[in-house]
Amino acid sequence: MAQPNFSPKPHTYVLLRVFDIPGHGMTPALAQSILALDFPEGDAARIDELNGRANEGELTAEGAELETCININDLLAYWQSKARQTLQPPA
Predict the structure, then answer these.
(1) 81 found inside a domain
(2) What domain range includes position 86?
(3) Cα 39 to Cα 91: distance, rounded to the nearest angstrom
(4) 9-53 pLDDT, tens per residue?
(5) Any idea what DSSP says for residue 88?
(6) Rounded to whole angstroms, how far apart are CA atoms 89 and 23?
(7) What is the pTM of this model?
(8) Three-state DSSP state, 15
(9) 19 φ, ψ (degrees, to nearest 5)
(10) Is residue 89, in this structure, part of any structural domain at all?
(11) Contact call for residues 19 and 30 (beta carbons, < 8 A)
């Protein structure tokens, strides 16, 4: 079975335009909303299950599912980092 070919670069450029980081920056309201985002409990439990199976070498066809979740989590972590920077008081 072919592995999905994930390239974050096009996604990043689109999201930069959506969040308008290069133009006006992230608003505090948007930053607060981004910080509130997380996987629902059921999805988080599924990710934990898949991670456990991957660590045991027992992951089969669900590898693509886990990779997708990891990519989304990485992207979410990036945007939450940007959100925290936006909400930080100037030094």
Answers:
(1) yes
(2) 47-91
(3) 32
(4) 666 677 767 766 656 778 899 899 999 999 999 999 999 999 999
(5) S
(6) 20
(7) 0.72
(8) helix
(9) -85, -10
(10) yes
(11) yes
